[in-house]
Specification:
The protein is mostly helical. The protein has seven helices and no strands. It starts with 7 loop residues before the first helix and ends in an 8-residue tail after the last helix.
């Protein structure tokens, strides 16, 4: 990029010496090119490097949601590993676990809504297990949102 090899510090000092008026978008390109050449820079190489830097920054910003999503998925998977073993529980233990979740401040309303037309005791063990596993997933999402400052609204 430079005609002669310069240290990063020497190059930075030369760039700082450029006239601040060159940053005005109305300044003609040939004036900017001449100023860059005067400090030993190739204007075409500087532009190419600037475009590449801007493209990389834009791509990081564009894909930023993917990084956040991957982090959230990893967190939820880690929490899912720590779930209770409902397969080993009998119906009475499942009902007790369901009652514990019914008292939970963030999840309790969802549990009560699941049984608005019937009693939990009327459900099969498999239905109770499936519901409890779903409740744990919802609770993990609430916790993940709360840890990230999302307010715990699940999305």
């Amino acid at each position: 990029m430079t005609k002669q090899s310069r240290t990063d510090e020497a190059l930075w000092m030369a760039v700082q010496d450029l006239d601040r008026e060159l940053l005005d978008p109305g300044v003609p390109t040939d004036v900017i090119d001449a100023a860059a050449r005067s400090i030993g820079l190739d204007p075409h190489a500087v532009r190419a490097e600037g475009r590449a830097l801007a493209a990389a920054a834009f791509e990081r910003k564009r894909r930023g949601w993917m990084t956040a999503a991957r982090e959230k998925i990893a967190l939820l998977r880690e929490k899912a590993k720590a779930t209770t073993k409902y397969a080993e529980m009998g119906k009475q233990m499942l009902l007790e676990e369901l009652e514990r979740w019914r008292q939970h401040p963030a999840i309790g309303g969802e549990v009560r809504a699941a049984f608005r037309n019937r009693k939990p005791e009327e459900s099969s063990e498999d239905d109770l297990r499936a519901l409890l596993e779903e409740i744990e997933r919802v609770a993990a999402m609430h916790e993940a949102d709360a840890e990230k400052g999302g307010g715990g609204d699940g999305g």
